[in-house]
Amino acid sequence: MKKTRFFFLILLAVFLIPAIVPAPAEAQKARLTDMVISNTRDDLLLFVTVEGAFTEQMKQAVLNGIPTSFSFIVRLEKINAFVLPNSLVAEKKVTHTIKYESLKKQFVIRRSWEENRTLTTDSFEKARQWMSEIKSLRIAALDKLQEGKKYRIRAKARLDTVELPFYLNYIFFFVSLWDFETNWHSLEFGY
């Protein structure tokens, strides 16, 4: 009798949980927008935003203290003529991490490209904004670029895998549904 009940509960969970937990398509709406390239006297800079990355489930998990990280991958390529493959000039991977400290009721954000400087706020909206944007990321020194040549900058964002303690994997098994990776977003320019 106990085995039958246990088996029934397992079957119920297998069929009901997917209906209750939203499909990963919700996270697939994440995309890069507002990509802008600029420069200083010496460096090429990138500005970009990821939209649609925070689902309600991710927000709830962050509020429950689960750290979450986004990675941004950026590639600068020189566009070569005809049959030659493009040349990679520079590649960067930067990471943003958010953690909610429930005792202080504060969100703590670290961004690797800012030398992991800590940003703190009590507003989820402000924390979401800091997690979703890159401003003035140094991609390459201008002396690496050749005058009169065409270049392409490509970027994408992805949610890094959340690593939970073993005992929490059973409770938060739906975390894998958060997985997202945006498509490559690119911008061409001449130098």
From TrEMBL:
Lineage: superkingdom: Bacteria
Record's keyword terms, sorted: Signal
UniProt signal peptide: 1-27
Protein name: DUF4390 domain-containing protein
Annotated source species: Desulfosalsimonas propionicica
Classification of source organism: Bacteria, Pseudomonadati, Thermodesulfobacteriota, Desulfobacteria, Desulfobacterales
